[in-house]
């Protein structure tokens, strides 16, 4: 792959958008390679993903403006669909995805981060949806996910004004969970990924599905049924039997021994 690096680190993996000369802007090839990378993640081994950008300046500075500049109406729609399809795959990916936002997260970059489950950022990060300044709307899910994440009022302000916000404001409005000095960002993401990987994997996946599907449900009653089914599923797993036996039994060694080969 030319623009995507994929590194497996035990039970988690790091995807790096690697097009540093263009501040990791997303052209069709980057999107295709990201799509293929996700298709090839070994879900029997990997329990969490981290997505970041190459270098110390930019996570992703948006969709590729050069490529978009000559698109027709139909081509624009198709390009939007291409981005939306990959980002939706990421959003519904069975395992948690952490965005380690190392600099500019503009347009498609902000949208990429919002398709991840969790966003943490470096102190020099800048978020924004500058599209209306270029004569377009956000096209990779920004009009939908930003409003869901930070509320319609603040999302509309950011999108209509095309004003970028710095990391501290992104933290204040809830667009990111935490900020780190640049050199501490990836270690923090890795610590979080390995912490997630230590927990019962089916339970973690079911949590992601319950939260995502519940947010998309028509009402709270439907959402709670989604939770009940995924909660029930867990009782068919060895993780549940082990986790609860370990908690309840005073003889921890006996429980470990009993579940050793399961
Ligand atoms: N597309 C294509 N190339 C880009 C790019 C983008 N989104 N962002 C940066 N680059 C390229 C620049 O053209 C430049 O290339 P050259 O060296 O070949 O000239 C290189 O990256 C470095 O960029 P700058 O010289 O501009 O760096 P800077 O430090 O002066 O500015 C910046 C950094 C403020 C991020 C500026 O690059 C910028 O404003 N980029 C565009 C941001 C943007 O508008 N993003 C939204 C795109 S639209 C979109 O994403 C639609 C959607 O929702 C799907």
Question: What can you tell me about this protein's structure?
Answer:
This protein is of the alpha/beta class and 262 residues long. It has two domains: 194 residues, Alpha-Beta Complex (2-enoyl-CoA Hydratase, Chain A, domain 1), CATH 3.90.226.10; 62 residues, no CATH class. It contains twelve helices and ten strands. A six-stranded mixed beta sheet has the order 1-2-3-5-7-10, sandwiched between helices. It has a four-stranded mixed beta sheet with strand order 4-6-8-9. β1 and β2 form a beta hairpin. The longest helix is centred in the N-terminal third of the chain and has 19 residues. The radius of gyration is 20 Å and the shape is globular. The protein binds acetoacetyl-coenzyme A (CAA). Acetoacetyl-coenzyme A binds next to α2, β6 and α4.
Strand proportion, as a percent range, falls in 15-25%
Helical content class: 40-55%
Intertermini distance: 38 Å
The CATH class of the largest domain, by name, is Alpha Beta
CATH architecture of the largest domain: Alpha-Beta Complex
Please report the total strand number as a whole number: 10
* Largest sheet, spatial ordering of strands: 1-2-3-5-7-10
What's the name of the CATH homologous superfamily of the largest domain? 2-enoyl-CoA Hydratase, Chain A, domain 1
What would the principal axes of the Cα set say about the shape?
globular
